[in-house]
Amino acid sequence: MGIMKNVIGDAGTVEKMTMKRLLAFYALLILAVGVWAADPYAGIATPDPLGDPGKNPAKPPPGFVLDPPTNKVKLIPVDYDPFAPTNAPGPRWEDTKPLPAEKKPWDNLPDAPTNVPVAPGKGMTLLDEPAEKTRVAYTPIQLFAKVSPSLVIISTPKGVGSGFIVFMDGKKYLITNEHLMRGGYPVSAKLLNGSELLKKCEITSAMLEVADDRDLVRIEIDNSIVCPALQLFIGDLGINTPINIYGNSDGAGVATSLSGKVIGIGPDQIEVDATFIPGNSGSPIIDSSGDVLGVATFLTLYNDPKDWAKKGTRFNDVRRFGVRITNSKWVSMTFRDYLVRAETLLDMDTYCCDLVDLFYTFKYRINDYQYVYDYNSNLWKYRKQKELCRFLSDAAKTYSEWCCISGWAAYYKNMSLKAKTRQETEDFNRRSYQIHALIPAAFEKYKKACKQIYLKPEPMLINTDWKTKKLLEEATRWYELLKRFNQVLESNF
After folding, report:
1. 485: how many CB neighbours lie within 10 A of its CB?
2. Residues 6+ away with beta carbon under 8 Å from 452
3. pLDDT tens figures, 428-455
4. Most exposed residue of 44, 145, 349, 469, measured as fewest CB within 10 angstroms of its CB?
5. Over residues 91-104, mean pLDDT
6. Which domains does the chain show, CATH number per domain?
7. Are 158 and 182 in contact (CB under 8 A)?
8. Percent of the chain with pLDDT strictly greater than 90
């Protein structure tokens, strides 16, 4: 019996030990399941040695668990007992730095190109078409197909040129050179499909916007007119950028294509090697993506054989420039107000050219004593300030009278020296004295007429509100030229 009790006692002991082992096993199993649920990849995978975050995302070191609510890592103490009584002190949580967010395969792609619009009045604005776009290099045929619906053929009574439709400041505008609009009324502007862009009955009351400091003018296009508009180039322009110029070359009434590249860049203008000619004034300078870089405007030629530094370089040949549109300040005025100022400056141009021809060339000279600048014969040259023609006509007439009187006085004086009789000598001397007495009055009359050449246009040039900086600079240039002419005349008198 004693032996049996010992056996039974030992069996009870074994049973108790077995139950303890089962409880420990279940506890370890629960703990393992909890750890696996917190980090299912523990001990299975390691980070990709190539560093691709999309394949094997980096895992925190063993013993760290991500807490979703706070997105912070919590440290499980080594002495943590999951079966401790509920009133036992909990684990000592210790905050560390948050783990980096898991990266996606597309996170390494380059950023999409952006095009930030500039402030209103300086190119494109927030009202323009979306600034972000993919720039595509078109073939020559594709580029002309894109640009041609926006090209315009412009003609005036005094000349022909080019223009184009562009989208800027939230509106569509017809852009061309200001000097082309000086051709006067009526102005014809037609698209290549023959549609009339400006009606003659509307242009006289239309509002123009003239660039303050460059040779540009724009006219807003009514929304009822269906025509696509080009976009302005926004960004940094580079040397050797390929360009095309489309316009009315030589005024032939057809759009032509001239290719080249940018060879000079400035804040207000660019230089190109595309060989545009008269008739291309107002033509758009287009890059390979169809955006407008500038407007073909003027040519220069500096050919001085004494300038050895430029000899044999391109700077001694014809150079071609385009005006940039961006950052332009625009001044509004009616077409009538613009024409008054523009035609006045054109008349000053004609006036000063004829002034030089009259006094310093033989264009209006008949002989040593006679110059002819007839008022009725030259009046057609002037548009607005027709009295300018009268000033030159009076100067030519009074100068001829003075020269004629002086010539006759000299003639009779010379004849008196050749006379064979005393009576003939007295007659020639008397006539010479009589005519010579008229010389001072004729000279004063001529001197007064010459002063009118400078004094009459002076108030017009000084007192006119020229509206823009460019028009004012041109008027000042003519004023200074006339002032210099008057100084030369006074020194000769």
Report:
1. 18
2. 391, 394, 395
3. 999 999 999 999 999 999 999 999 999 9
4. 44
5. 44
6. 2-97 (no CATH), 140-328 (2.40.10.120), 335-492 (no CATH)
7. yes
8. 47
Q: What is the mean pLDDT of residues 179-202?
A: 82
Torsion angle of alpha carbons 79, 83, 87, 93, nearest 10°?
A: 40
Burial class (CB in 10 A: 0-12, 13-18, 19+), 331: middle
* pLDDT-derived band at 147, boundaries 50, 70, 90: very high
Per-residue pLDDT of 9-21, as tens digits, reads 444 444 455 666 6
